[in-house]
Structures are given as C-alpha cells and as structure tokens.
Design a protein that fits this description.
about 425 residues; mainly alpha; Growth Hormone, Chain: A; 14 helices; globular
Length: about 425
C-alpha cells in the first residue's frame, strides 16, 4: 500500500512516488506537444484569423466535452479497481492518440471533433487515476513541497520542450516529431510498473455519501465549498492560455518563436515561484496575491490597445507569472483539506467534483470562443481576451481570501494555544 491513511504517521513509498513524479513530469512533454503545437498546426489550414479562432474553439470544446462525459466513468473504475492499471490504460490511450497523429497527421488535425475526442479520452483516463494516486501517495505534511516541485517540473518542461519541439517541427514534420513523443509515452508506461497502490478497504464511490459526510464536518464543508467555487475561475484560465497561444502565433507566425518565448518566460516564472515559496508563508503572502491579481488586467489591456510583438511578450510574461502562483498553491489546498477532515476513502469522489466543476467552466468558455469566431468581430475578441484574462486575477484573489479565512485563522488559534500552554506551565 503506497499511502498509509493516518495524518500523523503518513508515509510515502519513495519508489512509487518518485516514479509517479517522473511520469507526470514526462507527461508534460505530451501535454505541451498536443495542446500547444496542435493549436499551432490548426493554424496552418485556417484561412484567416477568425477561422483559426473558430477551429481552435471546436477542437478544445471537443476535448473538454469528452473529458466531462468520460471522467466520471474512469474515476469510478479507478476507485473500484487497481488505480495503477487505469493509469497504465491512460498511457496506452495516449500512445494510440500519438500513433494516430503519426499516421494521419494533417488529416487528423483537420478532423477537429475526432482529434478532440481522442485527446479528451487521454486526459480523462489519465487525471482520473493520477489525481487519486497523488493524493494517496503524498502525505498532508509534504503536499505543499510536492505541489511546488510538480509545478517547477512542469514549468521546466515549458522551458526546454517547446523550443525543442518547435525546432523539430520547423526542420522536419509534425508527424516525425510525434515519433519522439510516442517514445516518451512508452517510457512513462514502463515507469508505471514501479508504482504500487491499493484502494482503501471501505471505499464505495458515492458522490451522495461523500457530500453527506462533508456536511457533517462544518470546517471541511466550508473549506471545500469555497474551493469548489474558486475552481470555476481555475477552469476559465484554460481558455486564456489558448487565447495567449493564438496571440503569439498571429504576431510571430512561427512554432519556433512560440517555443522560444515560452521557454524564456518559464525561467522567470520558476525563479518567481522559488522566491515566493522560500520567503512567504500561507496567510502571510497577500501582497504577492495582490500583485499577480493586477498583472492579468494590465497586460491584457496593454496588448489590446497596442498589439505588437513587444506587448504580446509582456502579456505572456505577466500571465505566466500570475499562473504559476495559483497553480502551485491551489493544488496544495485542493488536496490537503480532504486529509485534514479524515475523508481518506473519498478521494475519487472529491476529485470528480473538482474536475467536473472545472471542466464545465472550460466547456462554457470554449462555446463563447466559437461564437466569437462566428461573429468575426475583432472588438468582441478583444473584450473576450480581457474578460477571460481576469480569471487569472479571480483565482489568485480567491486563494488570498482562502488563506486569510482558513490558514491565517488556524495559525492564530495554534499560536494562542501555545501561549495558553506556556502560561499554564509558568
């Protein structure tokens, strides 16, 4: 059993958790390849800007529509069976998708619904198992460190992989690059055989029972209700990343430039996260949240007023600096609260609710994006850019409120308790 369900004595199977960490880090390569460069590939057969926006919207809607419909099924299977085998099944589905890119290439990119369906199936099967494995394997005491490391690892991939993939696509073909990505999927599948886990004995997978138990724990209910609402804004940030990639492609017209910009900005973002993690603590970093809350609005308005290569780089930089903060700390609170409440056997249910809320927000945002493509109005697109950029601001603001309401108050209670003990001893 990878994780022993006791907050105080929780232990990690180091081999299993290390392999899970390695697999997820390598998986970032696949995510970057598919999400970023397939969007760039769609650009090649779109006749104008609004066709491009519409086509990307259709593809992303297909991805997240499929994700929403299939995540529940994979989550149920994960909870009822060996979650590692579902994780391996996800890698096999990934491999099938990459192989289909190798053989069908441009034709698959033009079959937007099919490409979106296949990738949505990859993502739902992967995260249904990964979310459960991660929360089981990593104890509450080290969840913060683990989440920060995962974020840094993913961002490091953003630095190294985009420029590499961009260069490969420029000098070869999208199909040839897919072969290298397929090899990485094979490596992940191999490493997954070193991951061990076992479902809790009393796990039943019932959303209804989980919500009932949550209501019986007022503190956990308040925290999770807040987190579920904040997740809506987290979901909306996905379209902002897509819109940003579109802006870069339209300004630079190159996969290599897209990769180069992403890589440079990634270095700055990692340094920022390391500094924030080292010099601030939960409940005492409001000034950081205020800063990264303001950044998205300023950068998006600047780009809309003065669209150029310079302002799109500024836009990308400030948005990335904002994103890396909430990505790391949202992940901590998303996973730790459940363990604090002692609800160890309801991990799959909790993650299902989180992913469903998040994906519904994504689906709604891409429906709006498709409508913008159909309206073919630049002003409407610019308004969309600013509005959805504010989702970055909203989630950071929510995290600031969460820390003030729950983390800072908990610290005060703990400090008062320590003072009371010392006074009684004196």
């Amino acid at each position: 059993m990878a994780y022993q369900y006791d907050i105080q004595t929780s232990k990690m199977d180091k081999t299993s958790s290390s392999c899970l960490f390695a697999c997820h880090s390598l998986g970032a390569v696949i995510s970057i390849f598919v999400s970023t460069f397939l969007v760039a590939y769609i650009y090649q057969f779109s006749t104008d800007t609004f066709d491009y926006i519409f086509n990307v919207g259709v593809y992303e809607l297909s991805v997240y529509g499929t994700f929403l419909l299939t995540y529940w099924a994979f989550s149920y299977l994960t909870d009822k069976s060996n979650r590692v085998w579902i994780y391996r099944l996800a890698q096999i589905i990934r491999l099938v998708f990459i192989v289909s890119i190798i053989f069908f290439g441009r034709e698959l990119a033009q079959m937007l619904y099919l490409a979106g369906f296949l990738y949505g199936l990859c993502e739902s099967s992967y995260y249904a198992s990964y979310n459960v494995l991660k929360q089981e394997m990593v104890s509450r005491k080290v969840m913060s460190k683990f989440s920060v490391l995962i974020t840094i690892s993913s961002k490091t991939a953003d630095i190294l992989i985009p420029v590499t993939l961009g260069a490969l696509i420029q000098i070869s073909t999208y199909e040839q690059t897919s072969i290298y990505v397929a090899i990485i999927v094979g490596l992940i599948l191999f490493l997954s055989f070193f991951i061990k886990s076992k479902k809790p004995d009393n796990s039943t997978y019932s959303i209804k029972n989980f919500l009932k138990k949550l209501k019986e724990n007022p503190d956990a209910h308040k925290k999770m209700s807040f987190m579920y609402k904040a997740t809506i804004f987290y979901g909306l940030t996905t379209i902002t990343g897509t819109l940003l990639n579109i802006c870069i492609m339209l300004q630079f017209n190159s996969s290599l430039s897209l990769g180069g910009i992403t890589s440079i900005i990634g270095v700055v973002a990692i340094i920022e996260l390391m500094l924030v993690t080292k010099f601030t603590k939960g409940g005492k970093r409001s000034w950081v949240y205020w800063l990264v809350t303001i950044m998205p609005l300023v950068s998006s308005v600047l780009f809309v007023i003065y669209p150029s290569m310079t302002t799109v780089v500024i836009y990308s930089l400030l948005m990335t600096l904002s994103k890396i903060i909430f990505t790391a700390f949202y992940d901590v609170y998303r996973n730790s609260t459940l363990k604090e409440a002692g609800l160890y056997s309801e991990i799959a249910e909790h993650q299902t609710i989180i992913e469903s809320v998040m994906t519904m927000a994504r689906v709604a945002s891409y429906v709006i994006m498709i409508l913008v493509g159909l309206l073919r109005n630049l002003v409407v697109y610019e308004i969309l850019l600013i509005v959805f950029s504010l989702s970055y601001s909203a989630i950071n603001f929510c995290l600031m409120l969460y820390e003030k309401k729950f983390i800072k108050n908990a610290q005060k209670v703990e400090e008062n308790s320590e003072k009371t003990v010392k006074n009684s001893e004196n």
